[in-house]
Design goal:
The complex is a heterodimer of chains A (about 230) and B (about 450). By secondary structure, chain A is an alpha/beta fold. Chain A folds into 2 domains: about 100 residues; about 130 residues, no CATH class. Chain A contains 3 helices and 11 strands, in the order βααβββββββββαβ. In chain A, strands 1-2-3-4-5-6-7-8-9-11-10 form an 11-stranded mixed beta sheet, covered by helices on one side. Chain A is elongated, with a radius of gyration of 18 Å. The termini of chain A are far apart. With about 450 residues, chain B is α/β, with parallel strands linked by helices. Chain B has a single domain, classed as TIM Barrel (Alpha-Beta Barrel), CATH 3.20.20.70. Chain B has 16 helices and 16 strands. In chain B, helix 8 links the parallel strand 11 and strand 12. In chain B, helix 8 packs across helix 10, helix 10 packs parallel to helix 16 and helix 12 crosses helix 15. Chain B starts with a helix and ends in a 16-residue tail after the last helix.
């Protein structure tokens, strides 16, 4: 496999992103390494081909934002909004992720090996997110679809105003948000969880050690009896 | 005098006429009764309905001895606008400064959105998507389409972002600055639900904040991300509801906006709480001058390629409003409510049907219920058949042409060879309030409250 190297100390990010937006027929199957990222924002955003990008260090905001098809590996930590609005592909953060990881992501898989910050998977719209560590408060806020798997603990207000997304937590949950409740895991959901654990490199973790959370669906319609929850 | 007669006199003591309270007026009392019966706030569409200082409170001076007018039909008066010159490789060129504001597919029917696209295209202007994403019909019928990037990100995807001609990052809107969208279950049909990734028939609450940025520094990175994804081709607008226009415009410019869209409280919404519409935000008249001041202070006002353009909206109805907004410093305006009326919304020929809904033509604002007899603010497949996109689009194009010509009439009378040459010095105010807000003198005086001494 051909590997191309870009050094962000020597080449402007604009040129690297422009290259990565090139014709899919030229990029599909290629490997691209980005050296000296030094926390730059917007690295490898808007990718739309089956290219494998490795970021050799820490990334700033919105790394791999709106990703389509590509596989992006961040060897360090990621700033806010990693893989925000991802449509497909895989984004793997080997370190920690800051706030709003996978915000509004529609598809694909985000794997975070370490902890993730506030509002992880906020307004999730169908993607899968697996966090090896713990997540901060207000995670899965208004999450509409998709799955959030947390191997560690969750902070306050987990799943506040959640729609149809599913949350699996192995550790403790500090508190649940409005309209979020514990669910019984069906055999289908257990399979979803087991598959995601395997894809994220956690085949050794027992799916039965998780509790599942989702929407109580009491806020789906405006009603005076819910006034206190709005 | 007989007893009978004296009784008669008492009986004829003049009575006062029944007197309604100005405080507890008929509408107020009906709202108290409605709240008492239902236990939930009133939700409606449209913008502020109260009487506000507005463009009607301004007049143009026109030319005479000291100023030289242009011939009404022979001398050129340009109307074209270029938006997004600062950073975009492909700025937007429009033939008229009248653009169509963002309105969602979901709040509006498919045929209504198509009509807006057809009308805007025929008129040489742009139309704008809304919450819920871009439909192929809309893209197909709009030569210049602005794609809204909203807090909910419903239907937002990078493919549509790349298909857009410009991107409008929505921070807020005039009808509800600080509030998110709302679309009630009646309008969350199968198609709308799928586009927004929501269960069918639920009462949708859009978020009021963007999920992945929280302040002006983050906004700057967010705008840079969208530029990177679209390879710096497309102008990026930032839309704000009028609240603190000087600071908000300055921060939007600092964050990298190519164009600022400023929406006053008369600007419509598909649905929100009545209390929000009527009690939060500023009338557009009071917001334009501070916004322009911010652009001037940052050196981006009418400064060649480095300019940030200003689009204002909220209660624009005719060519006089267009000319006044431009004279106060706007580069272009946006119409929403007026465009819907041009398509056929609230038309008197539907009076019988409006009566059945407990309202009357011209007052109908329960757009969230999805029962619009005009087929515009609905997802009902039968009602929406009443919109003929070709005819409605033609009416909209006519209306925009009239507004543009009216603005030219005024500009020529003031001796201007382009609408953009209109300036605050061409205006006076009829009321002290309008004078203070628009910062033009009270008619017949040189007094601007807060600026000059009486």
């Amino acid at each position: 496999m051909e590997t191309l190297k870009f050094d962000l100390d020597a080449k402007p990010l604009r040129e690297v992103n422009q290259f990565l937006h090139g014709d899919a027929s030229l990029l599909d199957g290629k490997s691209v390494v980005i050296e000296n990222p030094n926390g730059a924002h917007n690295i490898a955003v808007g990718l739309k081909s089956d290219v494998h990008v490795t970021i050799k260090g820490h990334a700033g905001y919105y790394a791999a934002g709106m990703n389509q098809l590509a596989k992006v590996t961040i060897e360090g930590s990621a700033g806010s909004g990693v893989a925000e609005n991802m449509m497909s592909g895989v984004v793997h953060v080997k370190g920690f992720a800051s706030n709003a990881a996978a915000a509004t992501a529609n598809g694909g898989l985000l794997v975070i090996d370490g902890d993730a910050g506030l509002r992880t998977a906020i307004a999730l719209k169908g993607a899968d997110v697996v966090v090896g560590g713990s997540v901060g408060s207000f995670s899965a806020f208004m999450a509409q679809a998709g799955n959030l798997v947390i191997l560690g603990d969750a902070g306050e207000g987990l799943g506040d105003s959640i729609y149809e997304a599913k949350i699996f937590v192995r550790g403790t949950v500090k508190s649940l948000g409005a309209d979020c409740e514990e669910k019984t895991t069906s055999p289908e959901d257990r399979k979803i969880l087991a598959d995601l654990l395997a894809k994220a490199g956690h085949s050794d973790v027992n799916p039965d050690s998780f509790k599942q959370y989702g929407s109580a669906r009491t806020l789906y319609h405006f009603h005076v009896d819910n006034a206190g929850a709005y | 005098m007989s007893d009978d007669k004296s009784k008669d006199t008492v009986h004829k003591t003049p009575q006062t006429t029944p007197r309604y309270s100005a405080t507890f007026d008929e509408y107020t009392n009906s709202e108290i009764r409605r709240a008492a019966a239902t236990g939930i706030y009133d939700i409606r569409g449209s913008g502020s309905k109260r009487k506000l200082p507005h463009f009607d409170d301004l007049l143009f001076l026109g030319a005479s001895v000291s100023r030289y007018p242009l011939e009404g039909y022979r001398e050129k008066c340009g109307t074209d606008v270029i938006l997004g010159t600062r950073h975009a490789k492909k700025p937007i060129h429009l033939k008229t400064p009248v653009t169509i504001a963002g309105m969602s597919f979901g709040s509006l029917s498919g045929p209504a959105k198509e009509s807006l696209g057809r009308g805007a295209t025929a008129a040489g202007t742009s139309t704008t998507t809304g919450d819920g994403g871009m439909t192929p019909e809309e893209r197909g019928h709009s030569t210049t389409l602005v794609y809204q990037y909203l807090p909910s990100r419903y239907g937002m995807n990078p493919d549509d972002l790349r298909k857009a001609d410009a991107i409008e990052l929505v921070v807020g809107q005039g009808a509800k600055p600080g509030g998110g969208g709302m679309l009630l279950g009646q309008k969350i049909t199968k198609r709308v639900a799928k586009m927004r990734c929501l269960p069918e028939g639920i009462d949708q609450r859009s978020s009021c904040r963007h999920p992945d940025w929280t302040g002006p520094d983050d906004l700057e990175i967010k705008i840079a991300e969208i530029r990177e994804i679209t390879d710096w081709e497309k102008p990026i607008y930032v839309k704000i509801g009028a609240t603190r226009p000087y600071f908000d415009v300055a921060l939007a410019v600092k964050a990298g906006a190519d164009v600022v869209v400023l929406d006053g409280m008369q600007g419509g919404t598909a649905a929100t709480q009545e209390v929000f519409i009527e009690h939060v935000g500023l009338p557009i008249l009071s917001a334009i001058r501070p916004a322009v001041k911010a652009l001037q202070d940052l050196g981006v006002y009418r400064n060649g390629k480095d300019s940030v353009q200003l689009i204002v909206s909220g209660g624009i109805r005719n060519g006089a409003d267009v000319a006044k907004a431009i004279a106060l410093g706007a580069d272009a305006v946006a119409i929403g409510t007026a465009a819907l009326i041009a398509l056929g919304d609230n038309d008197p020929h539907l009076e019988e049907e409006y009566k059945k809904l407990g309202t009357t033509a011209g007052a109908y604002d329960d757009w969230h219920e999805g029962k619009d007899p005009a087929g515009i603010t609905t997802q009902d497949p039968e009602l929406m058949k009443r919109v003929d996109p070709i005819k409605a689009g033609h009416r909209l194009a006519n209306y925009i042409a009239v507004m543009t010509m009216e603005a030219q009439v005024v500009a020529r009378a003031c001796g201007k060879s382009h609408l953009h040459n209109l300036e605050p010095e061409d205006l006076v105010a009829l009321t002290i309030e309008a004078s203070a807000m628009a910062q033009v003198p009270l008619a017949g005086t040189s007094w601007i409250p807060g600026v000059t001494k009486f």
